[in-house]
């Protein structure tokens, strides 16, 4: 986990630009002490954004570098996403409450 943190403290500029160009906005990774890794990003179309990254040569190089840090070596790290359903959003509920009150 220390190596994962180290590598993400200085992501290659080419990789950063590829993510931005592919539509990955407000992208963050969170790593718990037990190894749980959570990613958050905003984009217009998640599948399209992932597909655009899959076409970037720098992404293939980055995933190969990161693969050594994951237990499942049969799968590139960016292919192991588990999409979580949003069950609460403060801004959405505030907006709904304001519109029903007004």
From TrEMBL:
The cross-references to SUPFAM superfamilies, in alphabetical order and at most eight, read: Dimeric alpha+beta barrel
Q: Name one GO molecular function term.
A: racemase and epimerase activity, acting on carbohydrates and derivatives
- This protein's record includes keyword Signal: no
The entry's keywords: Isomerase
GO BP terms, alphabetized: rhamnose catabolic process
Which Pfam families does this UniProt record tie to the protein? Answer: rhaM (PF05336)
InterPro entries, per this entry? Dimeric_a/b-barrel (IPR011008), Rham/fucose_mutarotase (IPR008000)
> What residues form the membrane-spanning segments?
none
PANTHER family in the cross-refs = L-RHAMNOSE MUTAROTASE
Which protein are we looking at?
Answer: L-rhamnose 1-epimerase
- Species of provenance: Pseudarthrobacter siccitolerans
**Which gene is this protein's source?**
rhaU
């Amino acid at each position: 986990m220390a190596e994962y943190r180290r590598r993400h403290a200085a992501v290659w500029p080419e990789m950063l630009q590829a993510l931005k160009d592919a539509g990955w906005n407000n992208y963050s990774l969170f790593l718990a002490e037990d190894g749980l890794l959570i990613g958050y990003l905003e984009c217009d179309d998640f599948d399209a954004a992932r597909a655009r990254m899959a076409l970037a040569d720098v992404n293939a190089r980055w995933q190969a570098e990161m693969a050594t840090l994951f237990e499942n070596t049969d799968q590139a790290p960016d292919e192991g996403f588990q999409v979580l359903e949003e069950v609460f959003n403060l801004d959405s509920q505030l907006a709904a409450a304001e519109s029903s009150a007004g």
